[in-house]
Specification:
alpha+beta, 4-stranded mixed sheet
Length: about 200
């Protein structure tokens, strides 16, 4: 059985635009997923990336065009300049880590809900009520927003270290069985083909 590590951040519009497709692909191939939310700005600083606000104006302009196109392609609404971006993603990531450990809910749905809160619903994922609502809507105990914070925080830091060691430099990033790497939601077709044995 294949295993997919998914490195992501709800602050990333491309993590949001991936929707639940990776989970659907994994299910179709009987593959397992581990979600590994991380500090994407920390990842940029460790791997030579540049935060969006510091990029050349031509790169910023292209990014906005690409977001518009990818939103249309996926059918997912997206506000290119959301009200609560950037914000502190750590509380939402801690909740995702805790939910993954607890089980019993729709983890892919939770990931999608946290991204949607930022990029389509003008909500601040640093706020406890936003996180609790996303947990509850996806079948998790909303109190997970406040439980296991220390261990979740430690895993959040560890995820960044794991990402750097694994050659991750952006999000979303998919690694199959520790070696085959796919960067970006626009590589999900390639991930599907790889799991089918065609790539």
């Amino acid at each position: 059985m294949a295993h997919i590590d998914i490195y992501l951040s709800p602050l990333s519009p491309y993590s949001y635009l991936a929707g639940t497709r990776a989970a659907e692909i994994a299910e179709s191939h009987d593959a397992q997923i581990t979600y590994k939310p991380l500090d994407v700005m920390g990842l940029f600083s460790r791997t030579g990336g540049t935060p969006p606000k510091d990029r050349h104006p031509s790169r910023q302009a292209y990014r906005l065009q690409e977001l518009r196109r990818q939103s249309a392609r996926t059918g997912l609404p997206l506000n290119q300049k959301p009200m609560f971006w950037p914000t502190n993603p750590a509380p939402a990531c801690y909740a995702l880590i805790s939910a993954q450990k607890a089980g019993g809910g729709d983890l892919a749905g939770l990931v999608a809900a946290l991204g949607r809160a930022v990029w389509a619903e003008e909500k601040d994922i640093a706020e406890a009520e936003v996180i609790r609502a996303a947990l509850e809507a996806n079948g998790f105990d909303p109190d997970l927003a406040d439980k296991g914070m220390l261990s979740a925080a430690e895993e959040y830091v560890r995820n960044l270290e794991d990402a750097v060691s694994a050659g991750v430099f952006g999000v979303p990033f998919y690694i199959v069985d520790g070696s085959e790497r796919f960067w970006g939601q626009d590589r999900l077709d390639d991930l599907d083909l790889h799991l089918s044995g065609k790539l």
